[in-house]
Amino acid sequence: MISLTLYYVLMAICGLGSVVAVFLAIVERDMLKAVLFSAIQSTLYAFLYYLLMAPDIVLTYIPVSVGLYPAVILFLIKKTERFEDVEMKKGVLWATGLLSLVFVIATAAVIAGKGIGPVPPPDVRFLAGWYLATTFNPRVHLISAMAPEGVTSIVWDYRGLDTVFETAVLFLAIIASVALMRGVEHKGVYDELKHGMTLIGKTITKIVVPLIIGVGISIALHGHLTPGGGFQGGSALAVAPLLVLVVFSKYFFDKVKFTKTKALAIRSSGLLGVGLTAFAVLIAAIFLHKPAYILQNQPRVGAPLGFPWKGIDGVLLGGSLLSFNACEAMAVCAGFVILFLLLSIPERYVRSVVVGGEEHEH
Amino acid sequence: MSTEVLSFLFSIVFMSMIVNTALALYGVLARPSLVKKIIALTILGDSANTFAIMVGFRQPSGTNPIPPVLLWKPTPSNIRYFISHAVDPLPQALVLTAIVIGLAVTLFLVFLTIQIYRQYGTTDVRKVAKLRG
Amino acid sequence: MDPVTNWVLVILGEILVSIGVFFDVVAAIGMLRFPNFFVRLHAATIGAIGGAFVPLMGVALIAAGCDFLGKYRWFIAGAAAVTGVLVLMLAPVGSHLLAKAAHESRAAVVEPKVVDFLEEDKAKEGGEQ
Where do the structural domains in chain A lie, given as residue ranges? Predict the structure, then answer.
C-alpha cells in the first residue's frame, strides 16, 4: 500500500503546485512572467495526466501547452503590450494566495473526513467496460474496432463522426485566422548571417528538427497500437516548423519556397484524405452492390465489407485508423504552420496593408 | 485508515482544480488585458479537461490502474484483466480533440487581439471601450 | 551477465549519481550567490550538464546492472542514455542563445564587469561602417 500512497502524494503535489503556478500567472503584471508561470502549470498538469493514466493526453498536451502555447503568446506579447495596467495591493495578494492553498487543503480534509470524498471508484462505467471489452477482441469481430489502442478506437471508430466534426471546427478556426490576415504577402531574401539566431543555434536545430519530425511521424503512425494518433502526432510535428521559424527566421521559408499556399495544399490534402477514408468502404460497397455505412471500419452485422486489420505475419494494421491518423496529422501540422507563418510576418508591414492609409497616431 | 488518506490526497487534486478554475475565471472576467485573458482562458480549459479525465479515473483494489491500451495478445484472460484494470478511455478521447481545437481557437483569439491592437493601439479592454465611437 | 559485472556497473552508476548530486548543490549555491545574469546562467548550465547529464548516464549504468528489471532493463538504460545525450546537446545551446539575447537586448546588466570583448568588437565594427 506504500507505493499506492506515494502515487497519490505525487498527484496531490502536482495539484497544489499547479494552484501556486496558476495564482502567480493570474496576478502577475508582467506578461512574460505570466507565460512562464502558465508553462510551469502546464508541466504540472502533464505530470498529473501521466499519473491519471492518460498517456495519449500527455503526448498531445506536452507539445501543445508546454511548446506551442507559450511560443504563440510570446509572439503576441512581442506584437502588442508587455505590461498590464492594474494596481493590486501586496497584502491582499499574499492573503488571497495563502487563502486559496488553505481552502484546498481544508476542504479536502473536510470532504475526506466525512467520507464523501471523491475516492476513485474501483470500477468504471458500464459504457467504458463495453469499449474496453470490444476495442480489440477477435472473437467478437462484428462489434470490435480491432485496434488495441482504446482512445484512438473511440476517436476514429466508435465516435468517428464527432471527430470529423471537430476536425471541421479546427478547419474553421484556422480559416477564420487566415481570413483576418488576407491580402498580406511578405517575402524577403534570406541572409545566412543577418537573419535568425547564431550559427551554433542553427547547427543544433538542424540536428534536432529531424528528430522531432521522426518522433511526430512515429506517434502518428503507431496511433492504433500505442498511445498516440493523428492529433498527437500533428501537434508534435508542428513544433519542428515553429523551431525552424524562430531559429532560422521567416525568410528561410521563402528561400526553400515553402509558402502559405503550399501549407494550405498539404492541409487540404490531409482533410481530403480524412474524407476519403470516411467514405472508402461505402464507395467500395456501391461498386460491389453491398450495404455499408459511412465511417465504417470493420465488417458489421449486415455490412460485410471493411478495412483489413491484419497484415502479413499478423502485423496489426488498425483498419481505417492508420489512414485517418496519417491524414489528420498532416492536416493538423500544416494548419498550425500556416498560422505560425502568418504570425511571423513583421508587424510594420502588416500594419501598412491592414490599416492602410488611415494610420492612427498613438 | 488508508482509504481515508487516499481520499484526502485525491480530494486535494480535485479541490486544486476547482480553485484553479475559480482563479482562471477571475482572470478571464476581471483582468483588463486581453493577453492576460487569453492566458487565463487556456488555464480554464486545461482545468476543465483535467476534471473530465478525473471522472474516468479508477482505483482497482490494491493495485495500480493501467492506461486504456491493450499491450498483450487478446486472449480471454488478458481481456478480462484489461477490463478490470484499465481506466475509462471515453473522457480521454474527448479531451484529446478538445486540446488541439483549443489551440486552434486560441490562435484565432491571438489574431483577433493583434488586430484590436492594430486598430486601437492598446490591449486594455477599458481603454478599447472608451475609444469606441 | 555475471554478478561481478552487474555490481561493477551498479557501483559505477552510483558514483556518477553522487557526482551529479554534488554538481546540483554547487549549481544551486551558484544560482543564489552569483552577482549577475551571465554568471548565474553559467551556474544553471553546470546544473544541466553536471547535474543532469552525468546522473542520467549513472542511471543508465545502474539499470544495465539490475537483473531483476527483466525486459525493462535495456529499455530504461537506453532511454536514460538517449535523454542524457539530448540534454548534453541542447542545454549548452540554450544557455548560449539566452546569453546572446540578453547581451544584445541589454536586458541584463553586467555588473561587476571586468572586460566585455563582445561589446568592444561591436563598437569596433560600428566604427568601421
Answer: 124-362
